[in-house]
TrEMBL record:
Keyword Membrane: yes
Keywords: Membrane, Transmembrane, Transmembrane helix
Keyword Electron transport: no
Membrane-spanning residues: 7-27, 33-51, 58-78, 84-101, 108-129, 135-153, 158-179, 185-204
UniProt organism field: Heyndrickxia oleronia
Full protein name: Uncharacterized protein
Top-level taxon in the UniProt lineage: Bacteria
Length: 209
């Protein structure tokens, strides 16, 4: 890839952005729709630069920064009263972080640290920005699968994984049932189905041997 290709990408992106900006101003100045194509146009030269240097790390870094700035802009323009970009920015930052940590991203230690950081981060947002409902239990449930799956996959202990994972799912449904509809005990239905996972693993792994 030649240097001229990157220059062309930059010039083309800038000209297109200016074109959309002028059209937006002339046709509908009350609604800033030009920011949406601007996001994709900025990815063009940055992606070309990353391809030229054959670096997926740079691509993840540039794309993450542009994406976060894009969310901040939309947040500020359309709903400045609620900083929702904080919810989306955190997981995006993990993309370049894991790309640069080539060896560490495969370790259980990083999975545990990352999970704890995620739980603390979203719990803090839950308590400070939107305390009406304890929604932090949902990302906490999802991120706990990271160290859990990695730990048992490395040990190849799939039966124990089914037990631990089932306990996690059961605790999740109990928590959701308690905070969402405590007067209706519906968690027993998915729990009954989940229990068949470790039971079937036990039968096929141990009883058949």
């Amino acid at each position: 890839m030649q240097k001229q290709d990157i220059i062309f990408a930059w010039l083309g992106s800038i000209l297109c952005i200016l074109f959309f900006l002028v059209v937006n101003y002339l046709t509908n100045p009350d609604y800033l729709w030009f920011i949406y194509p601007t996001f994709f146009l900025l990815l063009w030269p940055f992606s070309m630069y990353s391809i030229k240097h054959k670096s997926l790390k740079l691509h993840s870094l540039f794309t993450s920064v542009i994406l976060i700035l894009f969310f901040i802009t939309i947040n500020y323009v359309h709903s400045p009263f609620h900083p929702w970009f904080l919810y989306a920015s955190y997981p995006i930052l993990w993309w370049p972080t894991l790309m640069f940590m080539e060896k560490g991203r495969k370790t259980v230690f990083l999975a545990i640290i990352g999970s704890l950081m995620t739980i603390v981060y979203y719990s803090f947002l839950n308590a400070t920005i939107s305390p009406q409902y304890p929604w932090a239990i949902y990302p906490s449930f999802v991120v706990l699968w990271w160290p859990l799956a990695l730990f048992y996959a490395k040990k190849k202990e799939y039966y124990k994984f089914s037990i631990a994972a089932s306990l996690l799912i059961i605790l999740f449904f109990i928590a959701v049932n308690t905070v969402s509809s405590p007067n209706t005990i519906w968690a027993v239905y998915p729990i009954f189905i989940i229990l068949w996972w470790p039971l079937s693993m036990y039968y096929f792994q141990y009883r058949r041997n």
